[in-house]
Amino acid sequence: MVLVSAVRDYVYRMLQDISGMKVLILDSQTVSIVSVVYSQSELLQKEVFLVELIDSISKSKESMSHLKAVYFLRPTSENIQYMRRQLSNPRFGEYHLFFSNMLKDTQIHLLADSDEQEVVQQVQEFYADFIAVDPYHFTLNMPSNHYYILPAVVDPSNLQHFCDRAVDGIGAVFLALKRRPIIRYSRASDIAKRIAQETALMYQQESGLFDFRRMEMSPLLLIVDRRDDPVTPLLNQWTYQAMVHELIGIQDNKVDLRSIGKFPKDQQEVVLSSEQDAFFKANMYENFGDIGMNIKRMVDDFQQVAKSNQNIQTIEDMAKFVDNYPEYRKMHGNVSKHVTLVTEMSKIVEERKLMLVSETEQDLACNGGQVAAFEAVTNLLNNESVSDIDRLRLVMLYALRYEKESPVQLMQLFNKLASRSAKYKPGLVQFLLKQAGADKRTGDLYGNRDFLNIARNMARGLKGVENVYTQHQPLLFQTMESIIKGRLRDVDYPYVGNHFQQGRPQEVVIFIVGGTTYEESRSVAQLNASNSGIRFILGGTAVLNSKRFLKDLEEAQGIARSNANVV
């Protein structure tokens, strides 16, 4: 069972058995969990006539005893306090309480004590404590995502919250999948190790919950650190889903177009979901050139339908048109949505000269040749059309690749960047190197440490690449290939506890502390389609694009700096 259907099933079970008119009450996180798997029209079919947030419903006093209240909340102390206040003065006829993760006994007692009027019909745990953006890709949408970059001593209490949320999310995924995994983690990362150990401890403490039928091979949970591959979130993207997120931004499968221009009200926010949009499902991993052709085909098909609708001559034609009208409207909305997205992205590509920039980025990520790379980056820093953020990313990609080989040229690039880009934050590139430089990483990011990787890169070079803009493969792809071949090294990815796994697992969940990218989820989908005998699921603390990755870096640098001053 994949993630989207697991969460859909939970929502279905919450709403199905409660007959009559309902209000669905969510919190700021469960609203995302529900919205990516259930559309508003589907909620209406389940007689949900009102969806409210728990904090705003707390402010209202109006009685609605004709409605049954279905609450779906994270089991936080804040939400329990809200519930206690609302139960002490109930506004709804019935209360059905569902929590997205394990409740503590004390929380259950608090709720029971508050329910003096006995309006609570049921309290249940439904383990949908993660946002299933795609069938094999989930995120936890953590606002404080930058904490993974900071050393533990800097802010211990917030770091503990960060780790707790990660452990809750991972635990819920395995409860939803009804599995108990063996756990491995990235050796160089303190935070990956900590989350791995705390997850293992949770399995011990809650062993009754995770007592599923033993499988021949336990699934593998591999916890890695974003800093092992800081290159992927810095690159421009050229496949549809990843490109929309990089250039415009996707949040919970929705794209807010208000940030890039003026659009009619019904087009200001559009949904991009592989579950609800057949064109997107077929094209989400296609490259930009092919998308243009496929959209043209979709527009042609739509024009054919529109033409036949103009040809209404008899009553039968009219009846047929009315019957088909909802489908026609849906088609019209879909066509205009994809045309708008591709048109806007084409403008951005042209304005920021991204084809030029991206060619150099891909060279920096995939090919050696320091002299040529230095020249290419210098030329782009001098190019007036290149934006500040693109200059910063180019220098970062150069620094990550050649930090050891060319310190003198690196200083020259730092100085040029500081003089060309007023927005350049002094020390951000150095901070990235300090946090995610060669000495801090697990794995062979550039394929130049390990003999097998060097040979593979040479073979790729000889074969040539299909598309210069999409030649980069994330480190995650290598990691998954190593798992398929049974070659994931124990020294790099140790086991938690005295576990050891012989043979290949059939299911692998890879969790990236610091966030995933859509380029990585594409690699996962492609490997899952290749019938390797292993099913991969990707998850992380956030879904990154370069803007978010740099924002996290800046926030962490700011905290580290103010801490250094205090000390």
Polypeptide structure, described:
The protein is α/β, with parallel strands linked by helices. It folds into four domains: 2-126, Rossmann fold (3-Layer(aba) Sandwich), CATH 3.40.50.2060; 133-229 and 474-558, Rossmann fold; 240-351, Syntaxin Binding Protein 1, Chain A, domain 2; 353-436. Helix content is 50%, strand content 13%. The chain has 21 helices and 13 strands. The chain has helices at 3-16, 30-35, 40-45, 54-59, 77-88, 105-114, 156-177, 190-205, 240-247, 278-283, 288-310, 315-351, 354-366, 370-382, 388-402, 407-420, 428-436, 451-463, 475-484, 518-529, 546-566; strands at residues 22-26, 48-53, 64-73, 92-99, 120-125, 131-134, 137-139, 182-185, 220-225, 254-256, 269-271, 507-513, 535-540. It has a six-stranded mixed β-sheet, with helices on both faces. The protein has a five-stranded parallel β-sheet with strand order 2-1-3-4-5. Helix 5 packs parallel to helix 6 (105-114), helix 14 runs antiparallel to helix 15 and helix 14 packs parallel to helix 16. The protein starts with a helix and ends with a helix. InterPro entries: Sec-1-like_dom1, Sec-1-like_dom3a, Sec1-like, Sec1-like_dom2, Sec1-like_sf. One of its GO terms (biological process) is intracellular protein transport. Its main location: membrane.
Short description:
The protein is an alpha/beta fold and about 575 residues long. It has helices at about 5-15, 30-35, 40-45, 55-60, 75-90, 105-115, 155-175, 190-205, 240-245, 280-285, 290-310, 315-350, 355-365, 370-380, 390-400, 405-420, 430-435, 450-465, 475-485, 520-530, 545-565, and strands at about 20-25, 50-55, 65-75, 90-100, 120-125, 130-135, 135-140, 180-185, 220-225, 255, 270, 505-515, 535-540. Keywords: Membrane, Protein transport, Transport.
